[in-house]
Amino acid sequence: MAHPLRGQTAVVGVGLTKFGDLPGKTHLELLAEASHAALQDAGLKLTDVDGLFVSSMGRVFHPLQVAEYLGVKPSAIDGTNVGGSAFVNAIQHAAMALHTGVCNVALIAYGSSNRSDRKSGTRGPGGNPNAGVMYQSEYKPMLPVGAYALVANRYIHEYGLTRDQLSSVPVSFRKWAQLNPRAEMRGPLSLEDVAKARPICDPFTLFDCCLVSDAGAALVMTRADRARHLKQKPVYMLGIGSGTSHDQISQLANFTVTACAMSGPRAFAMASLKPSDVDVVEFYDAFSINPILFIEDLGFVKKGEGGAFFASGAAAPGGRLPVNTNGGGLSCVHPGMYGMFVSIEAVEQLRGETGARQVEGAEVALANGNGGLLSNQSTAIFGTAATLGASARTTKRAAPKKTAKKVAKKSAKKAPKKAAKKAAKKASKKAAKKVVKKTAKKAVKKPANKAKRRS
Amino acid sequence: MAETGNTFADEGAEKTFRAGLARGEFNIQQCGNCKKHVFYPRTLCTHCGSPNLVWKKAAGTGTVYSTSIERYKPEAGGDKNIAVVQLDEGPRMLTRITDIAPADVKIGMKVTAHIGEADGIKLIYFRQA
Ligand SMILES: [Zn+2]
User: How do residues B53-71 score in pLDDT, each as one tens digit?
Assistant: First the structure.
């Protein structure tokens, strides 16, 4: 039986501010601008919002601050801070609140003046999130980069990841950024550029580390029944999983396995899907090692094969599994808590609105937020209307025509006749596209150079 | 309701550990129920949930589980080692390996603990065994 939350809620609006240097704006102003854009996108008003889901490195009372600033009086309010993954984690909370009727329109929003705050020598509205952690901050480690570096070196020790394989992660994402007019870093980037850049914390150089940006981002969710009557093509929340493994890095039980090994199976189980059903993937790439760990821990490739996967070009434009199609935190934007942006790019891909970087025929997108020092992983699986009826996508791939009918039949039960007809039309169109895509995928060979395990 | 009663000592694990460190002792907790060790100091065993954690002297020996070099400019003190050591009792801890060039610290290296100080706080460091 399908999970009670599968397909019951949808993202109906997304909004982004400009990225980069925005010294004239506070974090709240950026949050408000993005919220306005997301609501406009959805065809909804600020006065419709009765669910507020925010998180920040700033005030402990951030949710109260945002509610007051926006003038909303929410019946569901949440400010769970599990690091940058908070905004993906919030999708779980928002979906539960929407599905149970605790709220009707959920706004998930973020604003950060991280770059300008650093330039002006202030730490912005909040303190250092890694300060005051006993048995960790007392040693004054270079954080967060040091924690990820320790994980990367252990991974290198166990699986023999090469410098070029690691470099292929930022290089791959830069290629996507070059197709994204919004991305901050769009110049060419080679494997050599990454290797020869200024060392930060071994094995990482400057280009292994995410950007520091000013930016705002927001998304709006409602229940699926309402979503169908709004302005945009709804992007349905099929599965959401949260996983928490530790706070301070020394307490991560196995440095080569992240909490994605928990969040992924939870999200896939709710969605009744498996990794091979996913068309496009968006990761929180705070550091170059992250996508290698996540692609493995979410089950897309075997443990130890993540480096070879990225080095093969599989994740780059034209590859068999596009990853970080906006350019990611390494090349597009990174205001400190990037989790908001993975979902937004996933939604835009499924709406088919991403221009030159559009993954043709994308129907299922996975967005994974990373929080703290790899501490929390939150995995969201989104789908188009065509994915709603099918409990498992394999059926559709095996027999596209048949399943297109099945999808139409199933949605007819739930939706009004007009919508059902529309869905059927869409589904058959998508199914036809899928066949072409599947054939193209077959032609691309899986990476052969299996990573060697060092003893 | 249930009361904590006499299950817990008046002094918490944190204070007990720091007091030991001030006397030059590196102590570690062992669970009286599952016999596994716990570090950093806790109230409940992270393996089985038991409140029956018993203090004992740590062996002070371990192995480098992972290591990295933090790159600082010479005027900022130069490169620094940062490491995670797995204690022979099992738990891991963040630390720095002293008395060695950062690049010479290797994963798998056997190390022994010593107590040092940073900003007036006693801390456990390690050096090559
Ligand atoms: Zn125990």
Answer: 999 999 999 999 999 999 9
Higher local confidence (pLDDT), A390 or A250: A250
> Is A361 contained in some domain?
yes
Q: How many domains does chain A have?
A: 1
Which among A138, A150, A199 has CB closest to B71? A199
Q: Do A202 and B121 touch (CB under 8 A)?
A: no
Its domain, for residue A383, covers 9-397
CA B76 to chain centre: 27
Q: Which residues contact A234 (CB under 8 A, 6 or more apart)?
A: A10, A11, A12, A224, A227, A228, A385
Does residue B9 register a pLDDT over 60? yes
B83 contacts A255? CB cut-off 8 A: no
Is A346 a member of any domain? Answer: yes
**What tens digit of pLDDT does each residue of A321-340 get?**
999 999 999 999 999 999 99
Contacts of A123 (CB under 8 A, 6+ apart): A117
Domains of chain B: 13-57 (no CATH), 61-128 (2.40.50.840)
In the numeric block, the tokens 């060979």 are attached to A445
Q: Percent of chain A having pLDDT more than 70? A: 84
Please report whether residue A420 resides in a domain. no
**Among the partner residues A146, A157, A251, nearest to B82 by beta-carbon distance:** A146
Ligand 1 centroid–CA A245 distance in Å is 18
Examine the predicted complex and report whether its ipTM is higher than 0.90. yes
What is the CA B32 to chain-centroid distance, rounded?
20
- Are A248 and B107 in contact (CB < 8 Å)? no
**Within-domain flag for A419:** no
